[in-house]
Specification:
The chain is mainly beta. It has one helix at 3-16, and strands spanning 20-25, 28-33, 60-62, 65-69, 74-77, 93-94, 99-105, 108-113, 118-123, 130-131, 136-141. The two termini are 24 Å apart.
């Protein structure tokens, strides 16, 4: 799915006041989530079966590509501020240690850095998207 399509769906979610949307297209599933306006309500805990956690340690490689995965659960931000340029775009050359994005977890902004030098070939998540531990964020070609 193209980034422009994802952005259109995100705008539609905002317009309709939706907090989640799942789209299946060509055997690919894209789930968009955003936080709703704060609302005070009492919740009842629900047991959810635990899925096996993916390995995150060393970056996974597929040929010449390195997969940068989220080391924690949180919100993905491509830029340091709402109106700022993103840290990286597809086609950008990155150096080891360069900041690629931010994952916000419990009001803490965690910078995610490149593990190796390379070129960003894909940004796998949308800005503001909730990511899980082990979610692929970027693919970088060495």
């Amino acid at each position: 799915m193209k980034e422009t399509d994802i952005r259109k769906y995100a705008e539609l979610m905002k317009e309709l006041g939706l907090t989640g949307l799942e789209i299946t297209e060509d055997n690919q599933v894209v789930r968009l989530e955003r936080t709703a306006a704060p609302e005070v309500r009492q919740t009842v805990p629900v047991a959810v079966p635990a899925a096996p956690a993916p390995e995150v340690g060393a970056p996974k490689t597929a040929g010449n590509c390195v997969s940068v995965k989220s080391p924690l659960v949180g919100l993905f931000y491509a830029a340091p501020a709402e109106n700022a340029d993103p840290y990286v775009s597809v086609g950008d050359k990155v150096k080891k240690g360069q900041t690629l994005c931010i994952v916000e977890a419990m009001k803490l902004m965690n910078e995610i850095s490149a593990e190796e030098d390379g070129v960003v070939t894909e940004i796998c998540v949308a800005n503001g998207q909730m990511v899980e531990y082990g979610t692929e964020l970027f693919r970088i070609q060495r």
